[in-house]
Design brief:
Number of domains: 7
Structural class: alpha+beta
CATH superfamily of the largest domain: Glutaredoxin
CATH topology of the largest domain: Glutaredoxin
Strand content: 15-25%
């Protein structure tokens, strides 16, 4: 029976294949898309180096040195595959297996191509000297040298020049960036090319001898002609509604695009045939099966509507279908269903849904809603517990997270952690459980200015601590007349930031904030300095006397008065004395400001307190002793910081009141200072982030410690590992064998300062069960010295018991004993401790060499980068120091450091390690290494665990290799959602690229009433670089759609990362209206990444408000500038640029006249530079913050006030001014500005006709403004020729929808948004007025008349809908319901034509108001059905509309035939009653339409040599065509 069944199967297959071969004719129809960067393809050899630099700069330089040894001619002769293999071979010398996988994925994505191009552009701005064929050159402080032999000779001349800038993205040779090195040597060259090695070796030697700071910037002298092919983006084909026909039927002329057949993997089952099984059964028929598969796809593509009852369970049925498969096959199934849903939906209808799966999904959804705020159908994504923003993530940010996580995972794995242990350590919260450390603020230096319990102004407030328990609004402070919150300002009165904070202190008192305030002035510590010598001393003394003889409030007012008088300038002591003399004439000024120290009480107390407390780097502000974070110590953020800290401290105080631990009888100040988190000293070095954190995860043989030469060849991580392997420790004698805190004391014990630091650490051992101390000897060995102290300490640590070593070394480092040793009053024998064999010890000491000192010193110099004798600590890998020469680090500081490290992670790691049963010395090492690794992670995002009911029936689980570190990827997703479309291919690629454990929770919606997805989707991504069979690189990745419906109209949309601005550059067919039944084979489109987006937020430092209307420019010395305008919404602005170095400046004109840039964040500005420098070197989003302030003499100026003479501005667009005026002075008011937009060939055809109608009737000079975002390549190519022929100007403007503004998904609604939401920022400030004209309008009047119409103070004017075609009354929705109530008798206006007074529009912030209202309304998907006109009509009460005369817009749908005669414009608006196509309506309504259309077709045919006139929908009009195109040189008819 089995045999007969098999034969039957073969017979069926044979017949079917015969049918396929007989019937399948021609090639399958498909859509394909590619996306290239504008710049040439960058060498992968260089891109790999950038990945290594991101991992570790030493990896980068090792790679550079190794590859430079290769012969350039051999590298150029090999094929691409061995070339790529060579790259991987050299990279894996430094990278782990996991990191290598991410490197391959990075190179496939071309992630570091912008970084290479950035360096290349920098090189082009420093052209090579001497010879044009100089492929490699070096810049020595700007002095260019083209020969390695001339470098050393040129150094003396270079030293006379200003040092070249070093950027944070630069690759600096390790150890060569010391500040005292006079020359910055920048090598511009391409690794692997001739001469590169000669330059590199010469510069490396000079860097090692500290003669130059050596930087390498890539310079590809001869870039590839082939563009960089991109991936990491999505392409969508949306099924377009054909309710109103919007497709141009003009057939495409020209050669079709040749594309190879593509096979879509992942579509395993088609019409019941499972092709993976068929391939296994009939391997010899692979080609036939391929043809059969194509046939089935082609025959099953057409879409039919589903019944409502069939829609209800589609999401559950999709989930069930996915879960019936296993492993990667299930992911492929998820990808196929989500990405081809319109076509596969009908097959899902037949899938039965298991009850246990449905119930588990429902119960899980309750958990998701309650614990994560995730509703049914929503999506979430986590990598190792880190939440990924599902709305805006892309592969570039995703890979960044994975690269960061890989370092932690690989480190833990190399330490021996696997599986659940590794996962649990990754998810440890190291933030600490205790309160923030606080400083004791009980000191005579702290004299409070106000007293809430005694001052009269607070007497009406409630005075019981019980009032802290009463409810209040979130963010509001409780006004209780008790001294609960104490705010202490510790400031340098001359420092600019301190001055602003002192003003804030006074403001808190003036405005009766429920806070007690004190100000401590830290001034010159030389007590001989008088108030006549130093303004700070003068202020301190004036404050002192006024506090004593008047009151602290008046004293503070005097200080702020001085600040007000001098403004932001420097303060001279004479100014302070003069102001004091004018206000207080009766005082003895010599006593106050002279050499008498009677009024130095506060000054002395302040200096004493600061020294005792360990404070430095002022200003500092303490709230109940807790230091505020630095980010809050600015004028704009200070109030937020204070309120946040009060809110953080309030719950503990409330709890104490509630429990009775704090009551009205308590002195609250004393109660606060007696808490366990309050310390007498808070060294800011301890609480600040570490200078660096050492990598202690490397496993290496520690034997190289004994060989200085071998040790010197190690990289920094290996050196650190060898040091850790050989480190010996002192610790307290007790039963505890696992110490959570390991402290390396870095010092020179031959110096008193070094011994004191070590002694302080040893003293802490007496009080600690969790600390062990080792010594790093930072001593430069000189011949002739014996270094007895160092050798004795080292030998004690090496040979003695840990407790014996501690006791011996304690004696040895005491200064009195050192003195006795030096004076020969004692010998080492006198320091013998119990259990020590002193004779054996002394015998070994005599034989001990100083080699260990040389090794330790080399470690300090190479890894820590410190000079000899420098002191510091390395605690669990965190580097603290180097300390200043006179800086004290006391026993209290050591205790604080131990406590800080213990609470911030070591405690939890110790508990975890103990649970694993590692309790010996190895456990202490493990805690140290894990603590160093986990504390080095930069992400502060809280890791989360998904809470769920069950995972047996509704969760897809795909496990990775348990013997390797695996990423834990968890997703909650609806299988028929746009999130699934993107997520499935990404997870498939990650599964192939790296080791991952994947868990996907199905979050299906039930009771669907409409199709959940109406789009096809492809995500372009590959796990590795791909090659052709001939070992050459493939041409690149692309999106390919096959099996699409032939009779449905599709519109193509690019789904790119937020920072990408792409444009179509080649498309033969209409991408807005793809109809495959009219296509021979392939619809191919090519896009370019035109620009990378730079976003920013601006603020006025004086007011804290966005500087609305401010203009920034972005440019370089050789590249034209682009400009932008700042919105009031979040102070947002955006600019666009290509990779390179750019300068942000205020635009010439009023912006620059009124404002100065005072500060900026997240830029690439080098140290000591006044410029605002931005490097566009990444595909990821770049967001900066810029603060500006008005100039002193412009404080009252209004930026948007019309100046008498304003220069013409620049704009971030492609400008084509064809009248010969290339930017000179001109009266812009003489130009009529017309704005319009279109998408799709038909609307572009209509828009050209609209333009013709404007030109035929308008006498003024016309400038058209077009939204570039959706224009076809053909329109962009034709428009400059049309402009030249007809003598108009045009400009293509471009704006990226801001990420913070609620996004629209449908292209039509996006375009509606562009019509209304960005009018204030789309146009430069010198455009005062413009008229929007819909693409499908025909103008019959001079639009100058509309331009000149008085809008009566309104910012814009719209035409109301006609109301005289009565048969349309049923469609006039504004006549009833919400709209009738909202409009309250006003008219509802149409958005097809409107005029905007931009000056008024900006002045009343209309754009910001519209965006604000949109943001609120658009959260409801059912609101703003007609976005472009619903929004202004909805805002009619806030932003008034001038109703234009009815004749300015006539529409056959709404207006009567009788009124047509007066029409000044005719709009081809849709008719919901007749659904009449646009072109048919145009021919019927406007006779002149075909004349305009025909004239444009004549011009088109003459320019491109086509014959579009043969496809007319009408009889050709009789017009003279000879002169059409004559200005372009076309005189003859075709």
């Amino acid at each position: 029976m089995a045999l007969s069944m098999k034969n039957l199967k073969m017979l069926v297959i044979g017949l079917l294949i015969f049918c396929v071969i007989s019937t399948v004719q021609g090639r399958p129809k498909s859509v394909s898309v590619t996306l290239d960067a504008k710049w040439g393809s960058t060498p992968l050899l260089l891109e790999a180096s950038e990945y290594l630099a991101k991992e570790n700069i030493e990896y980068f330089w090792r790679y550079i040195s190794d590859v430079s040894l290769l012969k350039p001619e051999e590298m150029e002769s090999v094929k691409d595959l061995p070339y790529y293999s060579m790259i991987l071979t050299y990279a894996e010398k430094s990278l782990s297996k996991l990191q290598m996988s991410l490197l391959k994925l990075s190179m496939s994505l071309r992630i570091y191509s912008p970084a290479i191009e950035n360096f290349n552009q920098m090189a082009l701005h420093e052209p090579p000297p001497e010879k044009k064929n100089c492929d490699v050159f070096v810049s020595l402080n700007g002095l260019h040298v083209c020969s390695p032999k001339k470098i050393e000779k040129s150094l003396e001349e270079a030293k006379k020049r200003k040092k070249s800038a070093i950027y944070k993205f630069d690759h600096v040779y390790p150890g060569s960036d010391e500040s005292d090195v006079p020359v910055v040597a920048v090598l511009y060259g391409e690794l692997g090319k001739p001469k590169f090695r000669d330059f590199h070796v010469e510069l490396r030697n000079l860097a090692m001898s500290h003669e130059v700071t050596y930087l390498l910037r890539h310079f590809v002298k001869n870039p590839s002609e082939q563009k960089t092919r991109l991936s990491g983006y999505g392409v969508e084909l949306a099924i377009k509604s054909q309710e109103y026909k919007a497709k141009d039927d003009t057939k495409i002329e020209g050669d079709g695009t040749k594309e190879e057949d593509e096979v879509i993997e992942g579509e395993d089952e088609i019409q019941g045939f499972i092709f993976s099984k068929l391939k296994d059964l009939y391997p010899e028929k692979q080609d036939d099966l391929k043809q059969f598969r194509k046939h089935l796809r082609e025959s099953s593509t057409e879409l039919t509507a589903l019944k409502v009852w069939q829609l209800q369970d589609l999401s559950l049925q999709a989930a069930q279908t996915v879960l019936l498969s296993e492993g990667p096959e299930a992911l492929k199934k998820l990808q196929d269903i989500s990405q081809n849903f319109p076509s596969v939906a009908r097959t899902l209808v037949k899938v039965p849904v298991k009850n246990e799966m449905k119930k588990e999904i429902e119960k899980n959804q309750q958990y998701f809603e309650n614990y994560h705020g995730i509703s049914p159908g929503d999506a979430a994504l986590y990598v190792n517990g880190l939440p990924i923003d599902i709305d805006v993530y892309d592969m570039f940010t995703f890979l960044d997270v994975m690269r960061s996580e890989a370092k932690l995972m690989q480190g833990l794995f190399s330490l021996g952690f696997k599986g659940n242990d590794l996962s649990q350590l990754m998810k440890l919260d190291l933030s600490g459980e205790t309160e923030n450390f606080a400083l004791d603020i009980r000191h005579t230096a702290i004299q409070y200015i106000n007293d809430l319990e005694k001052d009269k102004k607070y007497s009406n407030w409630p005075s019981s601590v019980q009032d802290l328990l009463r409810p209040t609004f979130p963010g509001m402070l409780r006004h209780v007349a008790r001294n609960i919150f104490h705010l202490v300002f510790i400031v340098d009165p001359l420092d600019k930031e301190s001055r602003e904070l002192v003003k804030m202190a006074e403001a808190f008192i003036v405005h009766s904030a429920p806070i007690r305030v004190a100000v401590v002035f830290v001034t010159n510590d030389d007590m001989k300095t008088t108030g006549y010598d130093d303004a700070g001393v003068a202020l301190s003394r004036a404050y002192d006397i006024l506090s004593q003889e008047e009151n602290p409030g008046k004293a503070l007012s005097f200080v702020t008065d001085v600040y007000e008088k001098v403004k932001s300038g420097p303060i001279a002591p004479e100014q302070v004395v003069e102001i004091f003399q004018k206000k207080y004439k009766d005082h003895d000024f010599e006593m106050i400001f002279g050499s008498d120290d009677e009024y130095d009480t506060s000054r002395k107390a302040a200096l004493d307190y600061v020294k005792r407390a360990g404070l430095k780097d002022f200003p500092q502000v303490l709230l109940n002793g807790v230091p505020l974070k630095d980010k809050y110590l600015t004028e704009n953020t200070f109030e937020e910081g204070v309120v946040s800290e009060i809110m953080a401290q309030t719950p503990d105080i409330q709890k104490a009141v509630y429990n009775g631990n704090l009551h009205d009888g308590n002195n609250i100040h004393e109660w606060l200072m007696q808490k366990s988190n309050v310390l007498p000293r808070l060294n800011s070095r301890v609480l600040s982030p570490p200078v660096k954190t050492l990598d202690l995860t490397v496993n290496i043989d520690g034997g190289s410690f004994d060989d200085l030469d071998t040790f010197g060849l190690l990289n920094s991580d290996d050196m650190t590992a060898v040091m850790a392997e050989n480190m010996k420790y002192m610790q307290r004698r007790d039963n505890i064998v696992l110490r959570a805190v390991t402290m390396w004391v870095v010092c020179d014990v031959e110096t008193a300062e070094g011994r004191q630091l070590l002694y302080n650490a040893i003293k802490q051992l007496k009080h600690s069960h969790d600390l062990r101390v080792g010594v790093v000897f930072n001593t430069e060995v000189e011949d002739g010295k014996d270094y007895m102290i160092s050798k004795a300490i080292y030998l004690a640590l090496k040979t003695l018991d840990t407790s014996e070593a501690k006791n011996f070394i304690t004696k040895l480092v005491k200064e009195e004993n050192i003195k006795d040793l030096v004076e020969a009053k004692k010998t080492l024998r006198d320091f013998e401790v119990s259990g020590m064999d002193i004779d054996n010890f002394l015998s070994q000491l005599d034989k001990l060499s100083t080699n260990f000192l040389r090794v330790h010193r080399l470690f300090v110099r190479s890894v820590l980068g410190w000079r000899t004798e420098a002191r510091g600590l390395v605690t669990n890998g965190k580097v603290i120091g180097a300390f200043d020469d006179v800086e004290e680090f006391t026993e209290e500081d050591i205790a604080l450091q131990e406590k800080f490290v213990f609470e911030k992670g070591a405690k939890k790691i110790k508990e975890r390690v103990m649970k694993m049963g590692i309790l010996d010395e190895r456990g202490s090492d493990m805690v140290m290494k894990v603590s160093a690794l986990l504390s080095s992670k930069t992400s502060t995002t809280e890791r989360k665990e998904i809470s769920y009911h069950g995972d047996q029936h509704s969760v897809l689980k795909i496990l990775g290799d348990p013997n390797e570190p695996a990423f834990q990827i968890e997703a909650i997703v609806d299988p028929v959602s746009s999130e699934a479309q993107k997520l499935a291919p990404i997870l498939l690629v990650l599964k192939r690229a790296v080791n991952v454990d994947i868990k996907i929770f199905m979050n299906s919606r039930d009771k669907l009433s409409e199709m959940p997805l109406t789009t096809y989707y492809r995500y372009v991504l590959s796990p590795d670089v791909e090659f052709e069979p001939n070992a050459m690189f493939k041409s690149g990745q692309k999106a390919v759609f096959t099996g699409l419906p032939h009779k449905s109209v599709l519109t193509l949309g690019m789904k790119c990362p937020e920072s990408w601005m792409v444009e179509s550059v080649k498309a033969l067919y209409d991408l807005d209206n793809i109809l495959l039944e009219e296509v021979d084979s392939v619809v191919h489109a090519e896009f370019d990444l035109e620009y990378l987006l730079l976003e920013g937020h601006g603020s006025d430092g004086s007011s804290g408000q966005p500087p609305r209307g401010l203009q920034f420019t972005l440019g370089s010395n050789s590249t034209p500038m682009v400009d932008t305008i700042v919105m009031a919404n979040l102070g947002y602005f955006q600019l666009k640029a290509t990779p390179g170095l750019w300068y942000l400046r205020l635009r010439e004109g009023r912006s620059k006249e009124i404002y100065d840039i005072t500060s900026h964040e997240h830029t690439d500005t080098p140290a000591d530079s006044d410029d605002v420098v931005i490097s566009m070197n990444s595909f990821k989003s770049k967001i900066i913050r810029v603060k500006v302030e008005k100039k002193e003499d412009k404080k009252n100026e209004d930026l948007l006030k019309e100046p008498e003479d304003e220069e013409k501005g620049l704009w971030d667009s492609i400008s084509s001014t064809l009248t010969g005026d290339k930017g000179g002075t001109k009266d812009v008011d003489q130009t009529l500005n017309i704005f319009s937009l279109a998408s799709g060939l038909m609307y572009e055809r209509l828009m050209r006709i609209m333009m013709m109608s404007v030109l035929k009737h308008t006498k003024s000079k016309v400038k058209f403004w077009f939204l570039k975002n959706y224009l076809s390549p053909s329109f962009k190519d034709f428009i400059p020729k049309m402009a030249e022929n007809y003598g108009f100007e045009y400009e293509l403007v471009q704006y990226k929808w801001p990420r913070w503004l609620n996004q629209q998904k449908e292209k039509q609604r996006i375009m509606w948004g562009y019509k209304i939401l960005f009018l204030d920022v789309l146009f430069p400030l010198d455009v005062k007025k413009f008229i929007f004209v819909d693409a499908d309008q025909i103008v019959r009047a001079d639009l100058q008349e509309l331009h000149d119409l008085d809008l009566n103070g309104a910012p814009y004017g719209y035409t109301p809908f006609c109301s005289d075609r009565k048969e349309m009354d049923g469609f006039r929705f504004w006549k009833s319901g919400y709209w009738a109530s909202h409009l309250a008798g006003r008219k509802y206006h149409i958005s097809a034509l409107y005029v905007v007074d931009l000056k008024k529009f900006r002045k009343i912030a209309a754009g910001d108001r519209l965006r604000g209202q949109y943001q609120g309304l658009s959260q409801d998907p059912n609101s703003l059905s007609n976005l472009d006109q619903d929004l202004p009509n909805n805002m009619i009460h806030q932003v008034s509309i001038k109703s234009l005369p009815q004749e300015w817009l006539w529409c056959a749908t709404w207006c009567s035939d009788e009124s047509k005669a007066k029409a000044k414009t005719i709009d081809l608006c849709n008719n919901p009653l007749t659904k009449e196509p646009k072109l048919k309506a145009a021919l019927r309504i406007a006779p002149e339409w075909k004349e305009y259309d025909y004239e444009i077709k004549v011009l088109w045919d003459k320019i491109y040599g086509t014959n579009t006139r043969s496809q007319l929908e009408y009889e050709a009009p009789k017009i003279d065509t000879k002169e059409i195109g004559a200005k372009l040189g076309y005189h003859d008819e075709l």
